[in-house]
Specification:
Number of strands of chain A: 13
Radius of gyration of chain B: 20 Å
Structural class of chain B: mainly alpha
Oligomer: heterodimer
Helix content of chain A: 25-40%
Radius of gyration of chain A: 20 Å
CATH superfamily of the largest domain in chain A: P-loop containing nucleotide triphosphate hydrolases
Shape of chain B: globular
Strand order of the largest sheet of chain B: 1-2
Helix content of chain B: over 70%
Distance between the termini of chain B: 26 Å
CATH architecture of the largest domain in chain A: 3-Layer(aba) Sandwich
CATH class of the largest domain in chain A: Alpha Beta
Largest sheet of chain B: 2 strands, antiparallel
Number of strands of chain B: 2
Strand content of chain A: 25-35%
Order of helices and strands of chain A: EEEHEHEHHHHEHEHEEHEHEEHE
Number of helices of chain B: 12
Distance between the termini of chain A: 37 Å
Amino acid sequence: MIRFTDVSKTFRRNRVLDGVTLDLSKGDRIALVGSNGAGKTTLIRCLLGEYIHDGAIAVEGLSPREHRGQVLRRVGFVPQIPPPLEMPVGELVSFAANVCGSRPERMADVMAELGLDFSRIRRLPFIKLSGGMKQKALIGIALGRDSDILILDEPAANLDPDARHIFFHLLAERKGSGVMLITSHRLDEVAALVNRVIEMDMGRVVLDDRVADDADMTSRVACLVRLVRTDPAFARAAAEWCFHPDENGLVWSGRVNGPDRLRFMCMLSRYTGLIANLSMTAAEEDIPCASQGS
Amino acid sequence: MTPLLHAARLDIAASLRARWFLFYALVFGGVVTLLFVFGVTESRVLGFVGLSRLLVTYIQLCVAILPVFILITTVRSVAGDRAAGVFEYMLALPVPLSAWYWGKMLGRFAVVFLPVFAAMAGAAAWGHYRHLGVPWDLFAVYTLLLMSLSWSFLGLGMLISTVARSPDVAQTGAFLIWLVMLLFLDLILLGLLIREQLPLEAVVGIALANPLQSFRTAAILLFDPQLVILGPASWVILDELGRTGYLVFALTWPLLLGTGCAWLGYRLFRRGDVL
Protein backbone atom coordinates (compact mmCIF):
# COMPACT_ATOMS: atom_id res chain seq x y z
CA MET A 1 0.00 0.00 0.00
CA ILE A 2 2.83 2.37 0.92
CA ARG A 3 6.31 1.80 -0.40
CA PHE A 4 9.46 3.66 0.59
CA THR A 5 12.30 2.89 -1.80
CA ASP A 6 15.77 3.98 -0.79
CA VAL A 7 14.46 7.22 0.70
CA SER A 8 17.16 9.63 1.83
CA LYS A 9 16.91 13.18 3.06
CA THR A 10 19.75 15.56 3.68
CA PHE A 11 19.53 18.97 5.33
CA ARG A 12 22.60 20.80 4.16
CA ARG A 13 25.28 18.25 5.07
CA ASN A 14 23.26 16.46 7.69
CA ARG A 15 21.85 13.17 6.41
CA VAL A 16 18.63 12.67 8.34
CA LEU A 17 17.24 9.74 6.37
CA ASP A 18 19.66 7.26 4.90
CA GLY A 19 18.33 4.83 2.33
CA VAL A 20 15.08 3.86 4.02
CA THR A 21 13.29 1.04 2.24
CA LEU A 22 9.99 -0.18 3.64
CA ASP A 23 6.79 -1.77 2.48
CA LEU A 24 3.68 -1.04 4.50
CA SER A 25 0.70 -3.21 3.68
CA LYS A 26 -2.98 -2.85 4.40
CA GLY A 27 -3.63 -4.00 7.93
CA ASP A 28 -0.20 -2.94 9.17
CA ARG A 29 -0.32 -1.15 12.48
CA ILE A 30 3.16 0.11 12.96
CA ALA A 31 4.95 1.48 15.97
CA LEU A 32 7.66 3.73 14.62
CA VAL A 33 10.18 4.10 17.38
CA GLY A 34 13.57 5.67 17.82
CA SER A 35 15.34 8.29 19.83
CA ASN A 36 15.22 12.00 19.08
CA GLY A 37 16.83 12.72 15.74
CA ALA A 38 16.37 9.15 14.55
CA GLY A 39 14.43 10.39 11.51
CA LYS A 40 10.86 9.45 12.45
CA THR A 41 9.33 12.87 11.95
CA THR A 42 11.30 13.46 8.76
CA LEU A 43 10.07 10.14 7.37
CA ILE A 44 6.50 11.17 8.19
CA ARG A 45 6.95 14.57 6.57
CA CYS A 46 8.28 12.90 3.43
CA LEU A 47 5.24 10.64 3.41
CA LEU A 48 3.01 13.70 3.77
CA GLY A 49 4.70 15.26 0.74
CA GLU A 50 6.12 18.11 2.81
CA TYR A 51 9.77 17.35 2.11
CA ILE A 52 11.50 16.59 -1.12
CA HIS A 53 13.81 13.60 -0.88
CA ASP A 54 15.94 11.15 -2.80
CA GLY A 55 14.44 7.78 -3.58
CA ALA A 56 10.74 7.21 -4.01
CA ILE A 57 7.61 7.06 -1.90
CA ALA A 58 4.44 5.66 -3.40
CA VAL A 59 1.01 5.33 -1.89
CA GLU A 60 -0.65 2.74 -4.08
CA GLY A 61 1.56 3.94 -6.90
CA LEU A 62 0.98 7.64 -6.30
CA SER A 63 3.69 10.01 -5.17
CA PRO A 64 2.56 12.12 -2.20
CA ARG A 65 4.47 15.01 -3.67
CA GLU A 66 2.95 14.92 -7.14
CA HIS A 67 -0.51 13.67 -6.19
CA ARG A 68 -0.95 15.56 -2.94
CA GLY A 69 -4.71 15.84 -3.10
CA GLN A 70 -5.33 12.17 -3.87
CA VAL A 71 -2.85 10.92 -1.28
CA LEU A 72 -3.64 13.32 1.56
CA ARG A 73 -7.37 12.77 1.19
CA ARG A 74 -6.63 9.30 2.56
CA VAL A 75 -4.42 10.45 5.42
CA GLY A 76 -5.49 11.37 8.94
CA PHE A 77 -2.60 13.08 10.71
CA VAL A 78 -2.00 14.06 14.31
CA PRO A 79 1.28 15.94 14.81
CA GLN A 80 3.52 15.58 17.82
CA ILE A 81 3.38 19.30 18.61
CA PRO A 82 -0.01 20.96 18.08
CA PRO A 83 0.30 23.89 15.67
CA PRO A 84 0.05 27.37 17.24
CA LEU A 85 -3.09 28.31 15.35
CA GLU A 86 -4.75 31.59 16.26
CA MET A 87 -7.98 30.66 14.54
CA PRO A 88 -11.00 29.53 16.56
CA VAL A 89 -11.44 25.77 16.85
CA GLY A 90 -14.73 26.00 14.91
CA GLU A 91 -12.96 27.64 11.98
CA LEU A 92 -10.24 24.98 11.97
CA VAL A 93 -12.78 22.16 12.08
CA SER A 94 -14.87 23.78 9.36
CA PHE A 95 -11.81 24.25 7.12
CA ALA A 96 -10.57 20.71 7.70
CA ALA A 97 -14.02 19.20 7.13
CA ASN A 98 -14.45 21.15 3.91
CA VAL A 99 -11.11 20.25 2.36
CA CYS A 100 -11.34 16.63 3.55
CA GLY A 101 -14.89 16.13 2.32
CA SER A 102 -16.23 15.42 5.80
CA ARG A 103 -18.71 17.11 8.15
CA PRO A 104 -17.79 19.19 11.20
CA GLU A 105 -20.39 17.27 13.23
CA ARG A 106 -18.56 14.02 12.59
CA MET A 107 -15.33 15.49 13.91
CA ALA A 108 -17.17 16.99 16.88
CA ASP A 109 -18.59 13.53 17.67
CA VAL A 110 -15.10 12.05 17.95
CA MET A 111 -14.07 14.94 20.19
CA ALA A 112 -17.12 14.27 22.35
CA GLU A 113 -16.11 10.62 22.70
CA LEU A 114 -12.75 11.83 23.96
CA GLY A 115 -14.51 14.05 26.47
CA LEU A 116 -14.16 17.36 24.65
CA ASP A 117 -17.27 19.51 24.28
CA PHE A 118 -16.91 21.08 20.85
CA SER A 119 -19.76 23.55 21.35
CA ARG A 120 -17.95 24.97 24.37
CA ILE A 121 -14.63 25.50 22.61
CA ARG A 122 -15.65 26.30 19.04
CA ARG A 123 -15.18 30.04 19.50
CA LEU A 124 -11.94 29.76 21.46
CA PRO A 125 -8.64 30.29 19.64
CA PHE A 126 -7.02 26.89 19.15
CA ILE A 127 -3.78 28.15 20.67
CA LYS A 128 -5.54 29.00 23.94
CA LEU A 129 -6.64 25.40 24.57
CA SER A 130 -4.73 23.24 27.02
CA GLY A 131 -2.31 20.65 25.63
CA GLY A 132 -4.79 17.82 26.17
CA MET A 133 -7.68 19.71 24.56
CA LYS A 134 -5.55 20.53 21.52
CA GLN A 135 -4.62 16.88 21.17
CA LYS A 136 -8.25 15.79 21.44
CA ALA A 137 -9.32 18.36 18.85
CA LEU A 138 -6.63 17.18 16.42
CA ILE A 139 -7.54 13.54 16.99
CA GLY A 140 -11.17 14.46 16.37
CA ILE A 141 -10.22 16.04 13.05
CA ALA A 142 -8.04 13.07 12.05
CA LEU A 143 -10.56 10.39 12.97
CA GLY A 144 -13.72 12.29 12.04
CA ARG A 145 -13.20 11.69 8.34
CA ASP A 146 -12.72 8.86 5.90
CA SER A 147 -9.06 7.90 5.88
CA ASP A 148 -7.32 4.59 5.50
CA ILE A 149 -3.88 5.89 6.45
CA LEU A 150 -3.50 7.17 9.98
CA ILE A 151 -0.28 8.92 10.92
CA LEU A 152 -0.08 9.67 14.59
CA ASP A 153 3.05 11.37 15.88
CA GLU A 154 3.15 10.86 19.65
CA PRO A 155 -0.64 11.10 19.71
CA ALA A 156 -1.27 10.21 23.33
CA ALA A 157 1.41 12.42 24.85
CA ASN A 158 -0.99 14.99 26.32
CA LEU A 159 -4.03 12.82 26.97
CA ASP A 160 -5.30 11.97 30.41
CA PRO A 161 -5.63 8.23 31.19
CA ASP A 162 -9.37 8.09 30.44
CA ALA A 163 -9.02 9.88 27.11
CA ARG A 164 -6.05 7.69 26.25
CA HIS A 165 -8.11 4.60 26.88
CA ILE A 166 -10.93 5.88 24.64
CA PHE A 167 -8.44 6.95 22.00
CA PHE A 168 -6.91 3.49 21.87
CA HIS A 169 -10.38 2.05 21.68
CA LEU A 170 -11.13 4.29 18.67
CA LEU A 171 -7.93 3.18 17.00
CA ALA A 172 -8.65 -0.46 17.74
CA GLU A 173 -11.94 -0.05 15.86
CA ARG A 174 -9.93 0.82 12.79
CA LYS A 175 -7.71 -2.23 12.94
CA GLY A 176 -7.38 -3.83 9.55
CA SER A 177 -8.93 -0.94 7.64
CA GLY A 178 -5.67 0.46 6.32
CA VAL A 179 -2.27 1.49 7.58
CA MET A 180 -1.69 2.98 10.99
CA LEU A 181 1.68 4.53 11.70
CA ILE A 182 2.18 5.51 15.31
CA THR A 183 5.32 7.09 16.65
CA SER A 184 5.79 6.96 20.34
CA HIS A 185 8.54 7.06 22.88
CA ARG A 186 6.38 4.94 25.15
CA LEU A 187 6.19 1.82 23.12
CA ASP A 188 4.50 -0.07 25.93
CA GLU A 189 1.49 2.24 25.56
CA VAL A 190 0.86 1.39 21.95
CA ALA A 191 2.14 -2.17 22.07
CA ALA A 192 -1.33 -3.64 22.17
CA LEU A 193 -2.33 -1.67 19.07
CA VAL A 194 0.47 -2.55 16.73
CA ASN A 195 1.40 -5.63 14.81
CA ARG A 196 4.72 -4.33 13.52
CA VAL A 197 7.57 -2.37 15.01
CA ILE A 198 10.00 -0.30 13.03
CA GLU A 199 12.89 1.20 14.87
CA MET A 200 14.94 3.96 13.40
CA ASP A 201 18.31 5.25 14.38
CA MET A 202 20.50 7.82 12.66
CA GLY A 203 18.11 7.89 9.70
CA ARG A 204 18.13 4.15 9.10
CA VAL A 205 15.73 1.37 9.82
CA VAL A 206 17.57 -0.71 12.40
CA LEU A 207 14.71 -3.00 13.21
CA ASP A 208 11.63 -4.04 11.32
CA ASP A 209 9.85 -6.67 13.25
CA ARG A 210 6.38 -8.12 12.98
CA VAL A 211 4.31 -8.84 16.02
CA ALA A 212 2.34 -11.92 15.14
CA ASP A 213 -0.34 -11.75 17.81
CA ASP A 214 -1.18 -15.45 18.16
CA ALA A 215 2.33 -16.78 17.84
CA ASP A 216 3.73 -14.23 20.20
CA MET A 217 1.77 -15.55 23.11
CA THR A 218 4.01 -18.60 23.30
CA SER A 219 7.00 -17.71 21.17
CA ARG A 220 10.37 -16.76 22.49
CA VAL A 221 13.19 -14.96 20.87
CA ALA A 222 16.88 -15.22 21.45
CA CYS A 223 18.42 -11.80 21.60
CA LEU A 224 21.95 -10.66 21.15
CA VAL A 225 22.79 -7.06 21.90
CA ARG A 226 26.20 -5.74 20.95
CA LEU A 227 27.21 -2.45 22.58
CA VAL A 228 29.68 0.16 21.39
CA ARG A 229 30.93 0.50 24.98
CA THR A 230 30.08 -0.78 28.41
CA ASP A 231 27.54 1.12 30.43
CA PRO A 232 26.53 0.49 34.05
CA ALA A 233 22.94 1.69 33.52
CA PHE A 234 22.47 -0.66 30.59
CA ALA A 235 24.04 -3.48 32.58
CA ARG A 236 21.50 -3.00 35.37
CA ALA A 237 18.56 -2.87 32.96
CA ALA A 238 19.79 -5.93 31.02
CA ALA A 239 20.34 -7.88 34.24
CA GLU A 240 16.69 -7.28 35.14
CA TRP A 241 15.83 -9.11 31.94
CA CYS A 242 18.17 -11.97 32.91
CA PHE A 243 20.60 -11.14 30.14
CA HIS A 244 24.22 -12.20 30.49
CA PRO A 245 27.30 -10.36 29.29
CA ASP A 246 30.39 -11.81 27.64
CA GLU A 247 33.76 -11.38 29.32
CA ASN A 248 34.16 -7.83 27.94
CA GLY A 249 30.67 -6.72 28.89
CA LEU A 250 30.00 -5.69 25.30
CA VAL A 251 27.81 -8.52 24.07
CA TRP A 252 24.67 -9.35 26.05
CA SER A 253 22.55 -12.39 25.33
CA GLY A 254 19.30 -13.70 26.65
CA ARG A 255 15.76 -14.71 25.78
CA VAL A 256 12.57 -12.73 25.78
CA ASN A 257 9.01 -13.95 25.77
CA GLY A 258 7.11 -13.00 22.64
CA PRO A 259 4.54 -10.79 24.38
CA ASP A 260 7.34 -8.99 26.18
CA ARG A 261 9.31 -8.10 23.10
CA LEU A 262 7.92 -4.64 22.82
CA ARG A 263 8.57 -3.82 26.43
CA PHE A 264 12.06 -5.19 25.98
CA MET A 265 12.62 -2.97 22.97
CA CYS A 266 11.21 -0.08 24.89
CA MET A 267 13.94 -0.68 27.44
CA LEU A 268 16.50 -0.95 24.63
CA SER A 269 15.31 2.28 23.05
CA ARG A 270 16.64 4.14 26.06
CA TYR A 271 20.11 2.97 25.09
CA THR A 272 19.87 3.32 21.31
CA GLY A 273 23.10 5.27 21.13
CA LEU A 274 24.96 2.45 22.83
CA ILE A 275 23.72 -0.34 20.61
CA ALA A 276 26.00 -1.32 17.75
CA ASN A 277 24.01 -4.34 16.72
CA LEU A 278 20.83 -6.09 17.74
CA SER A 279 19.65 -9.48 16.63
CA MET A 280 16.43 -11.20 17.55
CA THR A 281 15.88 -14.72 16.31
CA ALA A 282 13.33 -17.34 17.15
CA ALA A 283 14.61 -19.43 20.05
CA GLU A 284 14.79 -23.13 19.27
CA GLU A 285 14.89 -24.44 22.80
CA ASP A 286 11.87 -24.19 24.98
CA ILE A 287 13.68 -22.81 27.94
CA PRO A 288 11.87 -20.47 30.32
CA CYS A 289 13.03 -16.97 29.84
CA ALA A 290 12.79 -13.55 31.25
CA SER A 291 9.64 -11.52 31.43
CA GLN A 292 11.05 -8.99 33.80
CA GLY A 293 11.42 -5.34 33.36
CA SER A 294 8.38 -4.32 35.29
CA MET B 1 -16.29 26.56 -2.17
CA THR B 2 -12.95 25.65 -3.75
CA PRO B 3 -9.79 25.00 -1.70
CA LEU B 4 -8.41 28.29 -3.10
CA LEU B 5 -11.32 30.25 -1.67
CA HIS B 6 -11.12 28.32 1.60
CA ALA B 7 -7.44 29.24 1.90
CA ALA B 8 -8.16 32.88 1.01
CA ARG B 9 -10.98 33.03 3.54
CA LEU B 10 -8.75 31.54 6.21
CA ASP B 11 -6.07 34.16 5.58
CA ILE B 12 -8.58 37.02 5.58
CA ALA B 13 -10.03 35.82 8.88
CA ALA B 14 -6.53 35.47 10.36
CA SER B 15 -5.59 38.99 9.22
CA LEU B 16 -8.79 40.51 10.59
CA ARG B 17 -7.97 39.02 13.98
CA ALA B 18 -4.38 40.26 13.92
CA ARG B 19 -3.28 43.46 15.64
CA TRP B 20 -1.25 44.54 12.65
CA PHE B 21 -4.41 44.78 10.59
CA LEU B 22 -6.12 47.02 13.13
CA PHE B 23 -3.05 49.25 13.22
CA TYR B 24 -2.78 49.20 9.43
CA ALA B 25 -6.44 50.16 8.95
CA LEU B 26 -6.14 52.90 11.58
CA VAL B 27 -3.07 54.36 9.88
CA PHE B 28 -4.78 54.79 6.53
CA GLY B 29 -8.08 55.91 8.03
CA GLY B 30 -6.11 58.27 10.26
CA VAL B 31 -4.13 59.71 7.35
CA VAL B 32 -7.32 60.71 5.53
CA THR B 33 -8.86 62.11 8.68
CA LEU B 34 -5.74 64.16 9.41
CA LEU B 35 -5.68 65.48 5.85
CA PHE B 36 -9.25 66.68 6.30
CA VAL B 37 -8.54 68.09 9.75
CA PHE B 38 -5.47 70.02 8.60
CA GLY B 39 -7.41 71.47 5.71
CA VAL B 40 -5.55 69.97 2.78
CA THR B 41 -8.84 70.05 0.91
CA GLU B 42 -8.78 73.84 1.11
CA SER B 43 -5.22 74.40 -0.13
CA ARG B 44 -4.12 74.66 -3.75
CA VAL B 45 -1.15 73.01 -5.50
CA LEU B 46 -0.59 73.20 -9.26
CA GLY B 47 -4.23 74.08 -9.72
CA PHE B 48 -5.51 71.19 -7.60
CA VAL B 49 -7.90 72.12 -4.87
CA GLY B 50 -10.49 70.43 -2.69
CA LEU B 51 -10.78 66.66 -2.79
CA SER B 52 -8.38 66.38 -5.74
CA ARG B 53 -5.71 67.96 -3.58
CA LEU B 54 -6.50 65.55 -0.75
CA LEU B 55 -6.24 62.55 -3.08
CA VAL B 56 -2.93 63.78 -4.50
CA THR B 57 -1.49 64.10 -0.99
CA TYR B 58 -2.97 60.77 0.10
CA ILE B 59 -1.44 58.95 -2.84
CA GLN B 60 1.97 60.49 -2.11
CA LEU B 61 1.71 59.29 1.48
CA CYS B 62 0.66 55.85 0.30
CA VAL B 63 3.86 55.42 -1.66
CA ALA B 64 5.79 55.96 1.56
CA ILE B 65 3.71 53.77 3.86
CA LEU B 66 1.96 51.06 1.84
CA PRO B 67 4.91 49.06 0.39
CA VAL B 68 6.77 48.62 3.67
CA PHE B 69 3.56 47.70 5.48
CA ILE B 70 2.71 45.06 2.90
CA LEU B 71 6.22 43.64 2.78
CA ILE B 72 6.74 43.37 6.52
CA THR B 73 3.30 42.00 7.42
CA THR B 74 3.33 39.48 4.56
CA VAL B 75 6.77 38.06 5.22
CA ARG B 76 6.24 37.95 8.97
CA SER B 77 3.02 36.04 8.80
CA VAL B 78 3.96 33.60 6.02
CA ALA B 79 7.51 32.85 7.20
CA GLY B 80 6.30 32.97 10.82
CA ASP B 81 3.62 30.36 10.14
CA ARG B 82 6.17 28.10 8.55
CA ALA B 83 8.65 28.45 11.40
CA ALA B 84 5.98 27.94 14.04
CA GLY B 85 4.84 24.63 12.57
CA VAL B 86 1.50 25.82 11.21
CA PHE B 87 2.41 24.61 7.72
CA GLU B 88 3.29 21.14 8.99
CA TYR B 89 -0.28 20.60 10.07
CA MET B 90 -2.24 22.66 7.56
CA LEU B 91 -0.35 21.27 4.58
CA ALA B 92 -0.96 17.72 5.77
CA LEU B 93 -4.62 18.38 4.94
CA PRO B 94 -5.57 17.70 1.32
CA VAL B 95 -5.18 21.29 0.16
CA PRO B 96 -3.35 21.65 -3.17
CA LEU B 97 -0.17 23.69 -2.76
CA SER B 98 -1.38 26.01 -5.52
CA ALA B 99 -4.65 26.66 -3.66
CA TRP B 100 -2.79 27.26 -0.41
CA TYR B 101 -0.24 29.66 -1.92
CA TRP B 102 -2.49 31.63 -4.26
CA GLY B 103 -5.36 31.58 -1.79
CA LYS B 104 -3.06 33.10 0.80
CA MET B 105 -1.99 35.74 -1.69
CA LEU B 106 -5.54 36.60 -2.72
CA GLY B 107 -6.69 36.79 0.87
CA ARG B 108 -3.73 38.94 1.77
CA PHE B 109 -4.38 41.20 -1.21
CA ALA B 110 -7.94 41.78 -0.03
CA VAL B 111 -6.83 42.76 3.46
CA VAL B 112 -3.99 45.06 2.40
CA PHE B 113 -5.87 46.78 -0.38
CA LEU B 114 -9.32 47.22 1.14
CA PRO B 115 -8.36 49.53 4.06
CA VAL B 116 -6.43 51.78 1.65
CA PHE B 117 -9.35 51.82 -0.74
CA ALA B 118 -11.88 52.23 2.06
CA ALA B 119 -10.04 55.30 3.38
CA MET B 120 -10.01 56.83 -0.09
CA ALA B 121 -13.63 55.87 -0.75
CA GLY B 122 -14.58 57.31 2.63
CA ALA B 123 -12.95 60.60 1.67
CA ALA B 124 -14.79 60.57 -1.67
CA ALA B 125 -18.11 59.83 0.04
CA TRP B 126 -17.52 62.66 2.50
CA GLY B 127 -16.58 65.00 -0.34
CA HIS B 128 -19.72 64.03 -2.22
CA TYR B 129 -21.81 64.65 0.88
CA ARG B 130 -20.17 68.06 1.40
CA HIS B 131 -20.54 68.95 -2.31
CA LEU B 132 -16.76 69.32 -2.69
CA GLY B 133 -16.85 67.85 -6.18
CA VAL B 134 -15.42 64.35 -6.40
CA PRO B 135 -12.91 63.84 -9.27
CA TRP B 136 -14.14 60.35 -10.16
CA ASP B 137 -11.69 59.90 -13.04
CA LEU B 138 -8.79 60.67 -10.71
CA PHE B 139 -10.35 58.42 -8.08
CA ALA B 140 -10.59 55.52 -10.56
CA VAL B 141 -6.98 55.88 -11.76
CA TYR B 142 -5.68 56.15 -8.20
CA THR B 143 -7.65 53.04 -7.23
CA LEU B 144 -6.07 51.10 -10.08
CA LEU B 145 -2.62 52.44 -9.26
CA LEU B 146 -2.97 51.44 -5.63
CA MET B 147 -4.16 47.97 -6.63
CA SER B 148 -1.18 47.60 -8.91
CA LEU B 149 1.27 48.83 -6.26
CA SER B 150 -0.22 46.57 -3.58
CA TRP B 151 -0.06 43.55 -5.87
CA SER B 152 3.56 44.16 -6.81
CA PHE B 153 4.75 44.37 -3.20
CA LEU B 154 2.58 41.45 -2.20
CA GLY B 155 4.25 39.38 -4.92
CA LEU B 156 7.64 40.46 -3.65
CA GLY B 157 6.61 39.62 -0.10
CA MET B 158 5.47 36.13 -1.11
CA LEU B 159 8.75 35.53 -2.93
CA ILE B 160 10.82 36.66 0.06
CA SER B 161 8.70 34.49 2.37
CA THR B 162 9.40 31.46 0.22
CA VAL B 163 13.12 32.05 -0.10
CA ALA B 164 13.83 33.04 3.53
CA ARG B 165 13.78 30.14 5.97
CA SER B 166 13.11 32.17 9.10
CA PRO B 167 10.86 35.13 9.95
CA ASP B 168 13.84 37.24 11.00
CA VAL B 169 15.69 36.68 7.73
CA ALA B 170 12.48 37.34 5.80
CA GLN B 171 11.81 40.56 7.66
CA THR B 172 15.37 41.79 7.23
CA GLY B 173 15.30 40.91 3.54
CA ALA B 174 11.98 42.67 3.04
CA PHE B 175 13.21 45.78 4.79
CA LEU B 176 16.45 45.85 2.78
CA ILE B 177 14.59 45.51 -0.51
CA TRP B 178 12.27 48.31 0.44
CA LEU B 179 15.24 50.44 1.47
CA VAL B 180 17.06 49.80 -1.81
CA MET B 181 13.96 50.76 -3.77
CA LEU B 182 13.58 53.86 -1.68
CA LEU B 183 17.20 54.82 -2.31
CA PHE B 184 16.77 54.21 -6.02
CA LEU B 185 14.00 56.78 -6.06
CA ASP B 186 16.59 59.53 -6.17
CA LEU B 187 19.89 59.31 -4.38
CA ILE B 188 21.65 56.36 -5.97
CA LEU B 189 20.38 57.09 -9.46
CA LEU B 190 21.55 60.65 -9.31
CA GLY B 191 24.94 59.40 -8.19
CA LEU B 192 25.06 56.86 -11.01
CA LEU B 193 24.06 59.43 -13.53
CA ILE B 194 26.75 61.81 -12.48
CA ARG B 195 29.58 59.34 -11.96
CA GLU B 196 29.06 56.78 -14.71
CA GLN B 197 27.64 59.11 -17.30
CA LEU B 198 25.04 56.52 -18.17
CA PRO B 199 22.62 57.38 -20.97
CA LEU B 200 19.56 59.15 -19.67
CA GLU B 201 17.29 56.45 -21.12
CA ALA B 202 19.12 53.74 -19.17
CA VAL B 203 18.85 55.66 -15.91
CA VAL B 204 15.17 56.40 -16.47
CA GLY B 205 14.62 52.75 -17.43
CA ILE B 206 16.23 51.56 -14.19
CA ALA B 207 14.22 54.08 -12.22
CA LEU B 208 10.91 53.07 -13.77
CA ALA B 209 11.60 49.37 -13.20
CA ASN B 210 11.28 50.25 -9.54
CA PRO B 211 7.54 49.98 -8.80
CA LEU B 212 7.84 52.73 -6.20
CA GLN B 213 9.14 55.11 -8.85
CA SER B 214 6.72 54.05 -11.57
CA PHE B 215 3.82 54.56 -9.15
CA ARG B 216 5.19 57.88 -7.92
CA THR B 217 5.74 59.17 -11.44
CA ALA B 218 2.22 58.15 -12.46
CA ALA B 219 0.80 59.92 -9.44
CA ILE B 220 2.77 63.06 -10.36
CA LEU B 221 1.67 62.77 -13.99
CA LEU B 222 -1.95 63.02 -12.93
CA PHE B 223 -1.55 66.52 -11.54
CA ASP B 224 1.52 67.61 -13.54
CA PRO B 225 0.91 66.41 -17.15
CA GLN B 226 4.28 67.78 -18.36
CA LEU B 227 6.19 66.19 -15.46
CA VAL B 228 7.93 69.51 -14.88
CA ILE B 229 8.95 68.35 -11.40
CA LEU B 230 11.06 65.51 -12.86
CA GLY B 231 13.19 67.76 -15.05
CA PRO B 232 14.98 66.17 -18.05
CA ALA B 233 13.68 62.66 -17.20
CA SER B 234 10.24 63.82 -18.28
CA TRP B 235 11.46 64.16 -21.88
CA VAL B 236 12.41 60.51 -22.02
CA ILE B 237 9.16 59.35 -20.42
CA LEU B 238 6.82 61.53 -22.45
CA ASP B 239 8.75 61.18 -25.74
CA GLU B 240 8.95 57.39 -25.48
CA LEU B 241 5.56 56.56 -24.00
CA GLY B 242 3.35 59.62 -23.96
CA ARG B 243 0.94 60.38 -21.11
CA THR B 244 -1.54 57.56 -21.73
CA GLY B 245 1.20 55.11 -22.62
CA TYR B 246 3.00 55.85 -19.39
CA LEU B 247 -0.17 55.42 -17.33
CA VAL B 248 -0.76 52.05 -18.98
CA PHE B 249 2.86 51.13 -18.20
CA ALA B 250 2.55 52.28 -14.59
CA LEU B 251 -0.56 50.17 -14.15
CA THR B 252 0.66 47.03 -15.87
CA TRP B 253 4.35 46.87 -14.93
CA PRO B 254 3.82 46.50 -11.16
CA LEU B 255 1.11 43.93 -11.83
CA LEU B 256 3.48 41.95 -14.02
CA LEU B 257 6.32 42.34 -11.54
CA GLY B 258 4.15 41.22 -8.62
CA THR B 259 2.74 38.29 -10.56
CA GLY B 260 6.22 37.30 -11.77
CA CYS B 261 7.67 37.41 -8.25
CA ALA B 262 4.70 35.52 -6.82
CA TRP B 263 4.97 32.93 -9.59
CA LEU B 264 8.68 32.48 -8.95
CA GLY B 265 7.92 32.16 -5.24
CA TYR B 266 5.30 29.55 -6.04
CA ARG B 267 7.69 27.58 -8.21
CA LEU B 268 10.26 27.59 -5.40
CA PHE B 269 7.58 26.73 -2.84
CA ARG B 270 6.47 23.75 -4.94
CA ARG B 271 9.95 22.63 -5.81
CA GLY B 272 11.53 22.62 -2.34
CA ASP B 273 10.59 21.59 1.17
CA VAL B 274 7.35 23.29 2.08
CA LEU B 275 8.36 23.45 5.74
